[in-house]
Every structure is written in C-alpha cells, then in structure tokens.
Amino acid sequence: MLTDEFGREVSGIRISLTDRCNFDCVYCHNEGLGDTRGPMAPQDEEMSADDVVRILEVVAEFGVDSVKFTGGEPMLREDLEEIIARTPDTMEVSLTTNGTFLPDRAEGLVEAGLERVNVSQDALDPSAFAEVTKSGAYDRVIEGVEAALEAGLDPVKLNMVVFEHTAGYVPEMVDHVADNDGLQLQLIEYMPELTGHPEWNIDIQRVHDWLAEQATAIEHREMHDRKRYWIGGGPSDDSSGMVEIVDPVENPTFCANCHRVRVTHEGYLKGCLNRNDDLRSMGEMTKAEIREAYREVVANRVPYYGEYLVQGENGEWEFNETYLEV
Ligand SMILES: Nc1nc2c(ncn2[C@@H]2O[C@H](COP(=O)(O)OP(=O)(O)OP(=O)(O)O)[C@@H](O)[C@H]2O)c(=O)[nH]1
Ligand SMILES: C[S@@+](CC[C@H](N)C(=O)[O-])C[C@H]1O[C@@H](n2cnc3c(N)ncnc32)[C@H](O)[C@@H]1O
Ligand code: SF4
Ligand code: SF4
C-alpha cells in the first residue's frame, strides 16, 4: 500500500461514474465539481467501463481494497452491473445512490457483487424531500431502500445532509433507523465550500451533543475518525440503531484519517474531494502510465482542513501561505 507524506495509507478509491443526475438537490457538491450537473443524455467525456476497470486493476496492485461508486447519480449508468462484476475480487464494493433505480436493479447489483449501499434520504416526508431534492420521487426512494434490504445489502445506510432545511428532521430519522432492522443513518455535515450558500450551515457539534445524550454507546470508526452513536441498545444488539456523523469541515482529525483517492467521471485522478489542483487525466493512459500517475497523486496528497488552510476576511478558505513557504 502507498503512504503519503502525512503518513496516510491509501486503501480506498472513490469513483464518480457520471455527473448526470435525475435530481437537483439544493446542496449538491457533485463530488467536488460544484453545481455542474449535466443533462440526462450520456456525456462523451464519461469514462467507459473499460477505463474504470483498468484503473481498478492498477490500484488493486497497490493494495487498494475498497471502491465506492458514486456520481452524479451512478445508477444512470446502464453498465454499472458490468463494472461491478469486473471489479477485482480483492475489493469491497459499495455504492452511493439517490435510490430511485434500486427497485428494479438492487437484486442484479447484488448478483454482480455489490456488498453495501448508501441511499440519500434527507427527510421522511414527501414535501420536505421534494423541497431539498427538487424531485417528486419520494415513494420510489422508499421502495428502493426496501428493495436494497430485500436483496440482502447489509447495512443499508441512509445519508442525510444536515443543514438549515433538514436539521429539524434529525430526531425522526434517528427513530426511524432505530425502529427498522438493517438501516443505519449517516448524518453528513453540510459542506458549504462548493455550493455557494454558507448561510445554510448549522453547527454540527449541536447534533453530536444531542446524540451523545441519547446514546447507549459511542464508538470511533477508523475511517476519518468518525463518531458512531448507538441508540436503544449497543453494537451487539440487533434491535438498536447506529448513527454515524460525517463531519469533515474544518476537521483536521477527519483529514488525518483520510485513506481514499478519487476519480472524476472524466477519469481524472485526484487526492482530495475538495481539491482540483492535482488532477491527472487517466482516460487515455496505459496501465504503466496509470501506475505512475497514481504514485504521483498519492505522493502529493495534502490534508485539506487544518492548518493548511486559513479563513480570509470575506469568510472564504485560502491556502495558508505561511505553511506553504515552510
Ligand atoms: N470532505 C470529505 N467529505 C467526505 C469524504 N468522504 C465522504 N464525505 C462526505 O460524506 C458523503 C457521503 O459519503 P458516502 O458516499 O455515503 O460514503 P462514505 O460515508 O464516505 O463511506 P462509507 O460510510 O464507507 O459507505 C460524501 O458525499 C461527502 O459529502 C471525504 O473523504 N472528504
Ligand atoms: C454527490 S452524491 C452522489 C451519489 C448520489 N447521487 C446520492 O445522492 O447519493 C453523494 C453524497 O454527497 C452528499 N452531498 C452532496 N452535496 C453535499 C454537500 N454540499 N455537503 C455535504 N454532503 C453533500 C449527498 O447527500 C450524497 O449522500
Ligand atoms: S441525487 Fe446526489 S448527485 Fe444528484 S443532485 Fe442529489 S446529491 Fe447531487
Ligand atoms: S483530505 Fe480531507 S477534505 Fe480531502 S478528501 Fe480527505 S478527508 Fe476529505
């Protein structure tokens, strides 16, 4: 496994398969590309299944043992099942999706080799859901979550971005996962950097404090040093609910435990979700060239949050020049 200059081993890869989406969520960061979602028609610049598999085969040689497929909406790719089936056997395969296509395809994805799924669900009520996603597909998403559970995906994590529009729904989402076997909840801190709406931010520490009061057990996950709160039981009790908080913003501990590189839908390898200054285009590359690009990108990885950034007078984050000169 390769290790970067900050001692972070790279054990995972996160691949965006498309920037197209059938939703228009008001907060969407589109995996670091900002609000640039394309039309529904396939885009020429999307990597082919062969491109994706070539990259996976190379990083597997370096001991990368997990892949997360995301987007845009990755299930708009008709060849998703093929890509998963061709993923090296040494890799754990997971998917993050808005869930609308799961009712028809969850079973096929499991047959292809999918092990876990995260489904974005920001509210338990159709009108609140529509307000955030600009979509009327609430019932489809609920069906998708059921289809994923029936197909044997375990766990099925519900992703909820916590920001001004959704913060009030956190308690009922927590009850929902505690009451339903197989479901877990991921509360994701809203990342304002790429969306242009800093005013929607809320203090995620309040959610941590509230959960700590409810929890019967609290654990730390190695990845990103994330906290996990167990509600109504504990880690060994099947009837309890697990709530994980993903809180990257201004969190040097999160970045210090970041073990994944990323690939954009056009095939650019990059070391950090929030950075686009280290892109390496791998679409046309041979395996030997991909190996070289991978080594370079890992060698140049830098934590994003922490002393490497400073907040300017206008509230924007900028590189800490003092640090760069050292
Ligand atoms: N800044 C930052 N945010 C991340 C990172 N990983 C995940 N996130 C945030 O968390 C969201 C949800 O991630 P998911 O795709 O559901 O997957 P995950 O939680 O990272 O991975 P698993 O829990 O292992 O399934 C992402 O879209 C980001 O908003 C990361 O490395 N850096
Ligand atoms: C970009 S989406 C791609 C996969 C799929 N379309 C979905 O929505 O699950 C991946 C995850 O990013 C989260 N996300 C998007 N914009 C965000 C933001 N500004 N802050 C925090 N999380 C965000 C979404 O909630 C979703 O769980
Ligand atoms: S469903 Fe996912 S990719 Fe689509 S707009 Fe919402 S967060 Fe972004
Ligand atoms: S370095 Fe930090 S911000 Fe960048 S991908 Fe890793 S955890 Fe996310």
TrEMBL record:
It catalyses: GTP + AH2 + S-adenosyl-L-methionine = (8S)-3',8-cyclo-7,8-dihydroguanosine 5'-triphosphate + 5'-deoxyadenosine + L-methionine + A + H(+). It holds the Pfam family Radical_SAM. PROSITE patterns: MOAA_NIFB_PQQE, RADICAL_SAM. GO terms for molecular function: GTP 3',8'-cyclase activity. [4Fe-4S] cluster 1 binds at C21, C25, C28. Binds 2 [4Fe-4S] clusters. Binds 1 [4Fe-4S] cluster coordinated with 3 cysteines and an exchangeable S-adenosyl-L-methionine and 1 [4Fe-4S] cluster coordinated with 3 cysteines and the GTP-derived substrate. S-adenosyl-L-methionine binds at Y27, G72, S120. The keyword Nucleotide-binding applies. [4Fe-4S] cluster 2 binds at C255, C258, C272. Transmembrane segments: none annotated. GTP binds at R14, K68, T96, K157, R260, V261, R262. Pathway: Cofactor biosynthesis; molybdopterin biosynthesis. Its EC number is 4.1.99.22. Coiled coil: none annotated. The keyword Nucleus does not apply. SUPFAM superfamilies: Radical SAM enzymes. Residues 5-235 form the Radical SAM core domain. HAMAP family: MoaA_A. Catalyzes the cyclization of GTP to (8S)-3',8-cyclo-7,8-dihydroguanosine 5'-triphosphate. Belongs to the radical SAM superfamily. MoaA family. This is Probable GTP 3',8-cyclase. It comes from Natronoglomus mannanivorans.
